[in-house]
Specification:
This protein is mostly beta strands. Helices cover 12% and strands 59% of the residues. It is built from two helices and eleven strands. The protein has helices at 5-24, 41-45, and strands at 35-40, 49-58, 61-70, 73-74, 77-91, 98-113, 120-121, 124-125, 133-150, 155-173, 183-203. The strands form two sheets. Strands 1-2-3-5-6-9-10-11 form an eight-stranded antiparallel barrel. Strand 4 and strand 5 form a beta hairpin.
Length: 204
């Protein structure tokens, strides 16, 4: 994925700021059952490398930082992307169990095409991915709801869905491997799902 220097610097600065805000909110001391690490089984199913880290900092509050990377094409379908997604969570019972709501930010880059998705959602036409390739960057905000089931002392299972807004700028190409641009530096505002997770969680 090749982008101009200003775009790369913007993304790096935005993601670094998000990571710093998440970890500045954490206390400097740690204890058992305050940390967990997780993998999203939905991303795993699409061969997307992903990892999440969560820290509780009050009885009903935690911060979560997840990231994922897909750097390859499968069966000529291009689904290359990376994303970082920090989230603050409020738990209705206590951290790491039961119902929770969250507010998250997200950002990253993508290079996608030759994917057959024949549907539209709130002004975004995903069927365009069938015949064209889109390459660009994005950033956005969202809110989420989730629930965590305790399996045993160290293992949980978590389901979460989020909805929000994403702003993206991108170039358009005529096919998954073509290099001739059809459009340059286009802008789009997406409104719809911003998070979907079925997480297998290990609690420290």
């Amino acid at each position: 994925m090749n982008y101009n220097t200003n775009t790369r610097n913007f993304l790096r600065s935005a993601m670094l700021l998000c990571v710093m805000l998440v970890f500045l909110a954490m206390p400097r001391t740690s204890s058992a059952q305050n940390w967990n690490i997780k993998t999203n089984l939905l991303y795993d199913a699409t061969a997307t490398i992903n990892l999440g880290l969560e820290r509780s900092f009050a009885p009903k509050w935690s911060v979560d930082l997840s990231g994922n990377l897909n750097a390859w094409s499968i069966n000529d379908h291009k689904w290359k992307h990376w994303m970082i997604q920090p989230e603050a969570r409020y738990w209705f019972c206590e951290a790491f169990q039961g119902h929770f709501v969250g507010a998250h930010a997200l950002g990253g880059q993508y290079n996608v095409g030759n994917i057959d998705l024949d549907f539209k959602m709130l002004g975004t036409d995903f069927s365009n991915l069938r015949d064209k390739r889109y390459q660009g960057w994005y950033g956005g905000l969202g809110i989420a709801y989730g629930y965590t089931w305790i399996i045993n002392r160290h293992w949980n299972f978590e389901a979460e869905v989020g909805f929000g807004w994403i702003y993206t700028r991108y170039d358009v190409y005529p096919c998954a491997h073509c290099g001739t641009k059809l459009a340059n530096d286009k802008a789009h505002n997406y409104v719809g799902p911003t998070k979907a997770a079925l997480n297998l969680v290990y609690v420290f």
